[in-house]
């Protein structure tokens, strides 16, 4: 436990040290959402219609952006091999690292999304649906993405694999999420969609850490 | 009971057999010096001994138990120091060492870390990012682990003398002798002649094409 | 150019130059700001369309125009610093950066406050507003880039390059209203032909523009002096200056 | 000249070695554009309206994705200091590197964009306008982005700065490009917009290499 | 006329004066050995001499001309070998060296490169990515430049012996003596005792806190 706590603290303070880099997904997110009205035209109805899709796509892209860095530095400077040799259960350690990543680079997106939802003229129920789906849905991206990143950290070529692994997860996620927001815009229930996303989340939470740990061990060979 | 021993180890890299049938055994208080030219497979051997890499065939035993079966027991009794330092450049020396100790279940307080860094001639550099230290100073930072985890049963050191100046080499050599005479076991590689005043077991790997 | 600049590459000379300029800027700034404010708020007529809310104009427009001039000033300082290796130019660059950020922020806030009664919205993705926001970010960017380097020499150079590259934003701010026909009003003052504004609105505006400029100038001068003192703390002339100040204040208290 | 040719060859073969990583912007681009109809709803008219904006925004974001890698590896393994000491004019070398980056990670996007334009129900004149604006416009992104990457290569935190420096370029670029496509959709001339983008391109082509070279020199301190 | 000389060099890092008033002069055929403990500023000095870093004050002259004014002339007559190798891991040794030679205006054909690599004991490893070589083999790859650009007037070498085995050290030492006796100038740092059979000029930097 002590070891995991130390890892948590260290990763958080590393994140703080490199906070400029951490801003990246956030700025990227803001960028997307600023550029869209400029590119698409500022018509409130159009914006409202495409708004949830834009925010979700932007969130997915931003989370991809930082993901590659998740194990790269640790692999290159040898911290990863020291972690593997430390006796801390590797799956748990992987989970901690993914958690820190989510906390520092995705949670901020969710926190500022009300502001952006305003810009895109979303209504309040739509906004709440958006936040709920983001809160449950984005950890899935981080968890599954981390498997791909772990598999390729030694090879230095994560790109394709990352996309291939993530695509089958993205599509249902996006469909359920936007359908939830749509239901909300029509004042309907959307707990069904939330439940499905929640199930996906629990499933990946249970299995992904072991896959990540295995991938990291393989990277050392 | 040997601290570490192996049975018929062999390792293949890129279809090339680096070595096979390596049987070694390191007891408490003894020093194994792995020699060999560049590319002979010293680093590969050491990484197999730590368990980071699976050998092609053969078994590594820690206290007569397969290392895969030992779980945390082996981890808490081992220090591995490889070509890569395992310190992150954006954290300071103290932060790096504090994290390393915590994650390796070593109990130290910050004072001890400062004192260790003082022994290693890093006074005044404890709190700046490691990336802005000189090459030798970065390695000293990583080597401080040997002082902090001196109750481990086994040290596996891959070229620990690299980039150290004469004073650094002396400090480290003294530490090694001190550790060995207190019953520790050391497996070491070095291209600089190892001039330790201590009985040395040697293992020479050849460079096979 | 070099002949003229050369003496001011020395920090001490620059310090005394700032010292002589400072009172002029401060007095002019203070007087013009106060006259401008009273004139604009109390005497100048209300707009026939916008009523009294148009009076934000007297803060919004000077600050908006000044924000661009400050950016330009910062970039010029950066250019001088990069080309002629003048340390004091970099100090001026950083002195201007913070002031510029504040002024830009003021223009954004006043614009936004004006937008609410005029257009019924605080914010719109209008090209001018967006590019003005980008200007604020650019000021922040220069400052944070400067901060993130340990070595201040390296930091100045990097921040200088960034400041110069950012100049592309200035024409964009100006022309954005023409390219993109949305909410923000087109050029009314900065036109080549006759300004389309009554003189009794224009005059107080110019007074406040002068006031804003001089006040910012004064603050920049002060900041340059501060930076010089901080960097050269251990130099003999600074120590002498400090001792002189101490003895003066001592005699004053006695 | 010989030196520049060697650099070109070497960067191309490095790109080929790491082709899996190169696929990343492309996949990303496809992802955005296929996800959009899913997120927004497949109504042809809406899609057609937002199409050019979406493609342009997607192209901008994808080009950001690979940019950070432009000098990072060379800096870390010391190839950059050897290049600076080689006597090859650094501005020209920077231009070559940017060119290879554009060629290998942005040109593919432009090549597949007809396919994607189909998904978004663009008409043929719109499609051509899109391709022309992309061809002239995206090099500007690479050139200006490279300055930011050069400035921060030693810091290992390019993100924020990249976005900051690029935003002022994005805005007019996006405005002119989408307005060109709009003109095309109404069968109007759009050479005016192209000319402005072209002028921006020439301007950045003339000045950016020197800024990049300077930034790279500063990174060695 | 000295190949390289300096006038009152001083360098500051993190507000610490590493050294000041360094005046040195290296003639053709002479060897300058820069000594000093870890963190003394040897690497910093060498990087200033190459022109990569501007000194706080002072001037570096190449053949009595400021190096900033020399342009390509200095570049074509210099080989710098630093802590970072400057080879990219995904390219093979041959590719790396071919590129380096081309970009440094050195004319060689592939055969020469293969022969050089053979001298450095890298037979059979010429065409695999450098990243999968051992630590010492990677350094040998980078050192091959000294063979390929032996007509440069000046070599600046920062710890070239690191990670080399005994045979490697001998090969490199022989090459250095050969180069020096043909009129080359060398500036070198090393923590391993420099045992060259050649008159050596020494410059010792101290570690100042
Ligand atoms: C947040 C919102 C706003 C921002 C960021 C903003 C920004 C700017 C900027 C940057 C300028 C200087 C342009 C130049 O020098 O070329 C400017 C000028 C001006 N603004 Fe605004 N503005 C905002 C809202 C408003 C509103 C609501 C009004 C009034 C309806 C307004 C009226 C003006 C006028 C009259 C000028 C002078 C135009 C000229 O002669 O160039 N602005 N604004
Ligand atoms: N990741 C890898 N992939 C393929 N081959 C490798 C890899 N790492 C090492 N090798 C090969 O294995 C051999 C042994 O490498 P190793 O690093 O064990 O040598 P070493 O004895 O430690 O050498 P040195 O003294 O240079 O550190 C080398 O010849 C190398 O070519
Ligand atoms: N990038 C940097 N930023 C700040 N300080 C630095 C930086 N690089 C080096 N230093 C400081 O400068 C001093 C000299 O470093 P340098 O690398 O020149 O030493 P060195 O003599 O080469 O040492 P070594 O023998 O360990 O290689 C060190 O004390 C270090 O703390
Ligand atoms: Mg090795
Ligand atoms: Mg050094």
UniProtKB/TrEMBL annotation, chains A, D:
Protein name per Swiss-Prot or TrEMBL: Heme exporter protein B
Organism of origin: Paraglaciecola algarum
Subcellular location: Cell inner membrane
Family statement drawn from the similarity comment of this UniProt entry: Belongs to the CcmB/CycW/HelB family.
Keyword tags: Cell inner membrane, Cell membrane, Cytochrome c-type biogenesis, Membrane, Transmembrane, Transmembrane helix, Transport
Main subcellular localisation: membrane
Pfam annotation, one family: CcmB
Free-text function comment from the UniProt entry: Required for the export of heme to the periplasm for the biogenesis of c-type cytochromes.
Topology with respect to the bilayer: Multi-pass membrane protein
TM region(s), chain numbering: 21-41, 53-71, 106-122, 129-153, 159-181, 193-216
UniProtKB/TrEMBL annotation, chains B, E:
Protein name as catalogued: Cytochrome c biogenesis heme-transporting ATPase CcmA
Source species taxonomy: Bacteria, Pseudomonadati, Pseudomonadota, Gammaproteobacteria, Alteromonadales
Recorded name of the encoding gene: ccmA
Superkingdom of origin: Bacteria
Transmembrane regions listed in the UniProt entry: none
Keywords: ATP-binding, Cytochrome c-type biogenesis, Membrane, Nucleotide-binding, Translocase, Transport
Domain ABC transporter: 4-209
Coiled coil: none
Tagged with keyword Chloroplast: no
InterPro entries given in the database record: AAA+_ATPase (IPR003593), ABC_transporter-like_ATP-bd (IPR003439), ABC_transptr_haem_export_CcmA (IPR005895), P-loop_NTPase (IPR027417)
Keyword Nucleotide-binding set for record: yes
NCBIfam families: ccmA, PRK13538.1
Species of the source: Paraglaciecola algarum
Automatic annotation (TrEMBL), chain C:
Domain Cytochrome c assembly protein: residue ranges: 29-184
Lineage top rank: taxon: Bacteria
Subcellular localization: Cell inner membrane; Membrane
Transmembrane segments: 21-43, 63-84, 96-115, 127-146, 158-177, 201-224
Keyword annotations: Cell inner membrane, Cell membrane, Cytochrome c-type biogenesis, Membrane, Transmembrane, Transmembrane helix, Transport
Keyword Calcium among UniProt keywords: no
Principal subcellular localization: membrane
Membrane topology: Multi-pass membrane protein
Similarity comment text for this entry: Belongs to the CcmC/CycZ/HelC family.
Physiological role: Required for the export of heme to the periplasm for the biogenesis of c-type cytochromes.
Protein name: Heme exporter protein C
């Amino acid at each position: 436990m002590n070891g995991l706590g130390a890892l948590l603290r260290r990763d958080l303070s590393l994140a703080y040290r490199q906070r400029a880099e951490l801003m990246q997904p956030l700025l990227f997110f803001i960028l997307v959402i600023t550029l869209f009205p400029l590119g698409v035209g500022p018509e409130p109805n159009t914006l409202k219609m495409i708004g949830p899709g834009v925010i979700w796509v932007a969130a997915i892209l931003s989370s991809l952006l930082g993901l590659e860095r998740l194990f790269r530095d640790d692999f290159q400077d040898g911290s990863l091999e020291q972690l593997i040799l430390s006796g801390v259960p590797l799956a748990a350690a992987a989970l901690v690292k993914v958690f820190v990543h989510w906390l520092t680079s995705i949670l901020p997106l969710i926190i500022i999304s009300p502001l952006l939802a305003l810009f895109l003229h979303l209504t309040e129920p739509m906004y709440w649906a958006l936040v709920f789906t983001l809160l449950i849905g984005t950890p899935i991206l981080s968890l599954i993405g981390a498997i791909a990143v772990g598999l390729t950290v030694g090879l230095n070529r994560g790109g394709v694999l990352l996309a291939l692994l993530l695509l089958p997860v993205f599509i249902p996620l996006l469909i359920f999420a936007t359908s939830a927001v749509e239901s909300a815009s029509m004042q309907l229930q959307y707990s069904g969609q939330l439940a499905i996303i929640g199930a996906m989340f629990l499933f990946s939470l249970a299995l992904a850490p072991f896959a990540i740990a295995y991938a990291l061990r393989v990277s050392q060979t | 009971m040997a601290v570490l021993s192996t049975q018929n180890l062999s390792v293949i890299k890129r279809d090339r057999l680096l070595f096979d049938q390596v049987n070694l055994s390191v007891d408490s208080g003894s020093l194994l010096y792995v020699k060999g030219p560049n590319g002979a497979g010293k680093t590969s051997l050491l990484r197999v001994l730590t368990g980071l890499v699976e050998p092609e065939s053969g078994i590594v035993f820690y206290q007569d138990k397969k290392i895969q079966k030992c779980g945390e027991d082996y981890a808490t009794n081992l220090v591995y120091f490889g070509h890569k330092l395992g310190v992150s450049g954006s954290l300071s020396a103290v932060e790096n060492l504090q994290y390393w100790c915590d994650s390796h279940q070593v109990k130290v307080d910050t004072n001890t870390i400062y004192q260790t860094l003082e022994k290693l001639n890093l006074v005044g550099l404890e709190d700046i990012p490691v990336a802005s230290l000189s090459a030798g100073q970065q390695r000293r930072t990583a080597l401080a682990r040997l002082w902090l985890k001196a109750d481990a049963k086994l040290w596996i050191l891959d070229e620990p003398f690299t980039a150290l100046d004469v004073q650094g080499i002396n400090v480290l050599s003294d530490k090694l002798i001190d550790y060995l005479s207190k019953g520790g076991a050391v497996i070491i590689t070095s291209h600089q002649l190892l001039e330790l005043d201590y009985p040395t077991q040697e293992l020479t790997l050849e460079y096979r094409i | 150019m070099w002949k003229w600049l050369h003496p001011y590459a020395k920090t001490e000379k620059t310090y005394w130059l700032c010292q002589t300029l400072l009172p002029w800027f401060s007095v002019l700034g203070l007087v013009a700001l106060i006259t401008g404010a009273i004139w604009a708020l109390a005497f100048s007529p209300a707009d026939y369309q916008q009523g009294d809310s148009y009076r934000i104009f007297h803060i919004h427009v000077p600050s908006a125009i000044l924000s661009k001039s400050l950016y330009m000033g910062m970039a010029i300082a950066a250019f001088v610093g990069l080309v002629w290796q003048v340390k004091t130019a970099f100090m001026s660059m950083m002195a201007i950066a913070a002031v510029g950020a504040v002024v830009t922020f003021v223009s954004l806030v006043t614009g936004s406050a004006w937008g609410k009664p005029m257009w019924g919205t605080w914010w719109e993705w209008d090209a001018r507003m967006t590019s003005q926001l980008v200007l604020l970010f650019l000021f922040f960017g220069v400052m944070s880039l400067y901060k993130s380097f340990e070595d201040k020499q390296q930091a100045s150079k990097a921040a200088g390059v960034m400041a110069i590259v950012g100049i592309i934003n200035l024409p964009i701010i100006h022309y954005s209203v023409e390219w993109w026909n949305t909410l923000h009003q087109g050029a009314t003052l900065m036109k080549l032909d006759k300004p389309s504004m009554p003189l009794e609105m224009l005059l107080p505006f110019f007074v406040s523009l002068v006031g804003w400029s001089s006040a910012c100038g004064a603050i920049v001068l002060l900041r340059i002096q501060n930076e010089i003192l901080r960097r050269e703390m251990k130099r003999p002339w600074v120590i002498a200056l400090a001792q002189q100040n101490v003895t003066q204040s001592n005699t004053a208290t006695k």
